[in-house]
Write a structure and sequence with these properties.
This protein has ten helices and ten strands. With 323 residues, it is an alpha/beta fold. The strands form two sheets. Strands 3-2-1-4-5 form a five-stranded parallel β-sheet, sandwiched between helices. Strands 6, 7, 8, 9 and 10 form a five-stranded mixed β-sheet that branches. The chain binds xanthosine-5'-monophosphate.
Length: 323
């Protein structure tokens, strides 16, 4: 797994940036690099590092797998194309992903299917672009540690690691492999990345698919995305310094009543946690008024939901995501 050197102060951050930039230049030479830019902190910081090292030899590909949060695609374009002048290709691959995910309800299978399809999409884009040798990924220390190594049992196959097919055609560049999340944020700041991205909540590579218990359909994605936008907006407006806040859609229905009519609809779970590095996490004690507002808004605004639950489990024994 490699030796982990903590980034304790801004000097360490600068040294890290300098060291990685040099290392990437040396490895890449004149070759071209493709990056899986998701707009999350990890892939954004990885892309900026590589961009600093090899400039226009880097092409970023943003794959819209149809499992993103509200407005995510447009925001990524705005920030990376206009603020950072990065060559960004936007691929709409929704239909492919939904087809592959049809009737897949096992969490690990979902992760593998998505990870594999992701790489296929990249390979196709890379082929269109011509001679590309390297793939940049924003894999972190915690992703590597949790996907099963000699010293830790596999908890789940994180998208960046376990989902990769064996016959992948690129060589990997993973400059953040020794870092924890808060260190990545500091490296991002050191690279001039906007606070909007630096402070962004972690979002898993397989996206909303692993926040939908059971099989994934466009209708369920619509529901969980809408509920998620309400959770994030309300938590954001409340100005709470939390690690992650999101919604999960369950695979059961329950009876409710709206305007004197019986409903039979899905419950949404609200998950809000504090953490430093995602290895452990505590569930966040939210003010009651805020919980009330979230519950009220979700049940009123999101079609197909008639009940809101709160996840009051820390990690361990639970994980942050449900799948
Ligand atoms: P868990 O659920 O394992 O999540 O406690 C720990 C942190 O990692 C994020 N996560 C992922 N990030 N690809 C990623 O890039 C993944 O496949 C993945 N799965 C979980 C999760 O959101 C949390 O912050």
């Amino acid at each position: 797994m490699g030796i982990r050197k903590e980034l304790k102060n801004s000097g360490d951050v600068e040294d890290f940036i300098q060291g990685e930039v040099e290392r990437i230049r040396e490895v890449v030479g004149e070759k071209r690099v493709i990056c899986a830019l998701s707009g999350g902190v990890d892939s954004s910081v990885a892309a900026l590092l590589v961009h600093r090292a090899v400039g226009d030899q880097l092409v970023c590909v943003f794959v819209d797998h149809g499992l993103l949060r509200k407005n995510e695609g447009e925001e990524v374009r705005r920030i990376f194309e206009s603020q950072h002048n990065i060559d960004l290709r936007h691929v709409d691959a929704k239909d492919r992903f939904f087809t592959k995910l049809k009737s897949v309800d096992n969490p690990e299978k979902k992760r593998k299917v998505i990870g594999e399809e992701f790489i296929r999409v990249f390979e196709e884009e890379a082929e269109k672009l011509g001679d590309i040798s390297y793939l940049v990924q924003g894999t972190l220390y915690s992703d590597v540690a949790e996907s099963g190594t000699k010293d830790s049992a596999g908890v789940k196959s994180h998208h960046n690691v376990g989902g990769l097919p064996e016959d992948m055609e690129f060589q990997l560049i993973e400059p953040l492999r020794s870092l924890l999340k808060d260190e990545v944020r500091r490296v991002g700041e050191g690279l001039g990345l906007s606070q909007e991205i630096v402070q962004r909540q972690p979002f898993p590579g397989p996206g909303l698919a692993i926040r939908i218990a059971g099989d994934v359909t466009e209708e369920k994605v619509r529901i969980v995305r809408h509920a998620d936008s309400i959770v994030t907006q309300e938590i954001g407006d409340a100005g709470l310094p939390i690690w992650q806040a999101f919604a999960i859609l369950l695979d059961i229905k329950s009876v409710g009543v709206t305007e004197n009519r019986r409903t039979y609809a899905y419950p949404v779970v609200v998950r809000v946690v504090d953490s430093r590095d995602a290895m452990t996490a505590h569930w966040t004690r939210l003010p009651h008024e805020l919980m009330e507002r979230i519950s009220h808004r979700i049940t009123r605004e999101v079609d197909g939901v008639n009940r809101v639950l709160l996840d009051i489990t820390s990690k361990p024994p639970a994980t942050i995501e449900w799948e």
